Amino acid sequence: MDTSTTKAAREDPPAHLTLIVDLNPLQWELSSQASNDTPLSLSQFLAQLMIFINAHLAARDDNTLAVIGALPGYSVMLYSTDDSPPDDEAPARHQANSFQPFRMVDGRIASRIQEEMEKSTDLDGKTDRGLVGAITKALCHINRVNLLSVALTNNPESTSAMAPPSSQSPRMLILSISPDASTSYIPLMNSIFAAQKLKVKIDVCKIFGSDTVFLQQAAYLTGGSYLVLERRDALLQYLSMCFLPPASLRKVLATPSQDKVDFRAACFCHKKVVDIGCVCSVCLSIFCYPITRTSCSTCGTRFPLQTLKRLGYIRQPAAQANGRSKPNGTANGK
Amino acid sequence: MPAKDRDAYIDPDAEEDDFSAEEHDSVGSGDDFDQGTSSRGGKRGGLAGGKKGAEARLKSKGKGGDGYAWEGSISRTWDQVREDDGGSLELSVQEAIARARRKKLQQSGQAVRRTIIRHLVLMLDLSRSMTDRDLRPSRFDLGLEYARAFISEWFDQNPLGQIGVVGMRNGIGERLGEMSGNPQEVLRSIADRDKLMPAGEPSLQNAVEMARGTMSHLPSHASREIVIIFGSLTTCDPDNIFDTLEGCVKDKIRISIVALAAEMKVCRELCERTNGTFAVAMNEGHFKDVLFELIPPPAQLAAPAGAPGRSGPASSAAELMLMGFPSRLPETSPPSLCACHSTIKSEGFICPRCKVKLCDVPTDCDVCGLMIVSSPHLARSYHHLFPVQGYRPVMSMTQENPAGVPAQLACHGCSLPFPLRTLDSSANGGDAGDAAAADGISPLGRYRCPKCAKDFCSDCDVFVHDALHVCPGCC
Ligand SMILES: [Zn+2]
Ligand SMILES: [Zn+2]
Ligand SMILES: [Zn+2]
Ligand SMILES: [Zn+2]
Ligand SMILES: [Zn+2]
Ligand SMILES: [Zn+2]
């Protein structure tokens, strides 16, 4: 090993940060209502976020950044440091009190968010699955950037999709305000495992709303932190203390750890979050307990009768669909 | 079983005229097996086998055009990569990717029924023949290295499975590791190289019987499999191995063998009768390939068409299991006694039914008996059930884009722009596309998801299907 590589190994590699910003307009509206303890509106949030982004870019001149917005029903890349700046953007009037590159980044992110928010006002009814789309996009982007940097260093094994991150230590920060979308359980879990393979840490900052079980699992499984804001007006403080330092410093810093990780899953029949479920031994599909079906909807396996009896299935040939009374009084979604 | 079969321990296909003199030797030792005196028969067979093995291997590999591994030491994978006219490697790399893609296109849409709860006994040949250096650094070291990689990857894809390890040396089967669902524990059992040093002769029968005993108590919905890494050309057995084979067939044990030397009739028979696979490794890379092909959960024979869920032989083994998904306590929580070891500790998992604390998952709750698994364990195998459909290469923008829909400028996955020149060349992409179509390569570098009709770049296509298992456009 020559001296240059040992020196590089001792230094931290440049950090790549992917920010996933939850832009659900409904949730932001709820968040800014005065009835909250500490109302936080989208514009206040963005102002603090910009400072955080600038701090990340200022920490090292080769730090890279990607910002992805998660909107109801879809997700979109808002900004990436690999993008070449658009030519048509006239250099804005120079301001003495600001650093020009930061102003350009901030301006572009802000205008893109505005564009997308305006587009999405008529999409209210759409199911909330933008978040998992944003995560998959972030992973694709990280993978591609990894491959490109590997190809640059002339590694002959650059074709492998699992190539470990070469010089960067990619990180993902999810700023979440929406509740869990249990329809996206399987895609989200698959994304988490892909993140593990790419050695991407997923940090979650829950800005508004109740805990999300699945994002907790995402942070836990990838070695990131899950943080619930106690004082939302101090957002910037939280962001800069917990999520700005690179991964190598995390160990020293005692970032807030998760107190309890919920390993519940979503059932396949009603997409409901369950803590006890019936699992098909052939395909591991999860169904609610007590069981309401005689065969597996995923693989078509018919379950043995005595098992069904043991698990509380009551055969009611007449009224299959409705009006069924269960000993436990479980509500049937179907 | 006719005696003729047993005589031919070495498959005639692998033999050539050159060593017909030694052929007699092997027939003689083969007869000895019938008498069942393992020491005598084994020794004789072993001596002959060592020499014969080398030649048989030379022959079998010669057929494949590879020769001895040490003869082909200069040939390396990059030799297979050829430069194109412009001196670029791009094309052959693309071809390799395209080949994998084609395979994927064929695979998707196949039966989703797979055995997910698997039990496997990994059998390592630790006989003297493993010291052979035709695979570098030696069969033993390489086999050990790949066995470790195999175990890690196997648990990654079969998180609810269990592996036991059995070694074969000195004519007996040696239990190296008990059945365990903990990857670390299994890896520890073959971590110490010095304890595994090859010696003596292998005994397939003894080892298979041992594995069979380990798996005899398993529930019917779990699979029972044996994977053997076998470097010898002989086996010295105390009894008729075909009786053991019948037992395995009856117990529904699937045996797969990766042979490092040459094909043996008895090995092929073991695999074929139990629905396993048999393969002879040609070189280091091929060894790894054939071994790792055994990792994905085997697809179960689907129920007859039109009658899903009819209780056929496959579905009769299906069960519905009650499982609990715990929550995990952090290290900072107040210490309390755990139910499994009665020790005081802070971290642990809480049974959702009786709220008792457990040290590790997956496990059965010691108090209420509920099977406790963390849901990520289950979720790891879901990509086998809901595979992403293969993307189709886009051949020309003019043909495949509906009028009025603007062409996507950037990949829907990584959001990096598609190269612009491909858009210009799309006009004459028609005839060039035909040649590339067979290869599964898009001349435009675009691959389209049939479901969401979004375009992806080649890198994202590979990543989505190999690692992510979610289409960014569909989810
Ligand atoms: Zn349900
Ligand atoms: Zn099933
Ligand atoms: Zn314990
Ligand atoms: Zn319990
Ligand atoms: Zn892409
Ligand atoms: Zn799609």
CATH fold-level name of the largest domain in chain A: Rossmann fold
Tally of separate helices of chain A: 10
Assembly classification: heterodimer
Shape of chain B: globular
Give me the Rg of chain A, rounded.
23 Å
Structural class of chain A: alpha/beta
> What is the CATH architecture annotation of the domain at 112-293 in chain B?
3-Layer(aba) Sandwich
What is the CATH C-level name of the domain at 112-293 in chain B?
A: Alpha Beta
N→C terminal distance of chain B: 55 Å
The CATH superfamily label of the domain at 112-293 in chain B reads von Willebrand factor, type A domain
Described by the principal axes of the CA atoms, the overall outline of chain A is: globular
Q: How far is the first residue's CA from the last residue's CA of chain A?
A: 64 Å
Put simply, the count of helices of chain B is: 17
CATH architecture of the largest domain in chain A: 3-Layer(aba) Sandwich
> Roughly what percent helix of chain B?
25-40%
Largest sheet of chain A: 6 strands, mixed
CATH homologous group name of the largest domain in chain A: von Willebrand factor, type A domain
Biased composition (Acidic residues) (chain B): 10-20
Pfam family, one (chain B): Ssl1
Subcellular location (chain B): Nucleus
Domain C2H2-type (chain B): 447-469
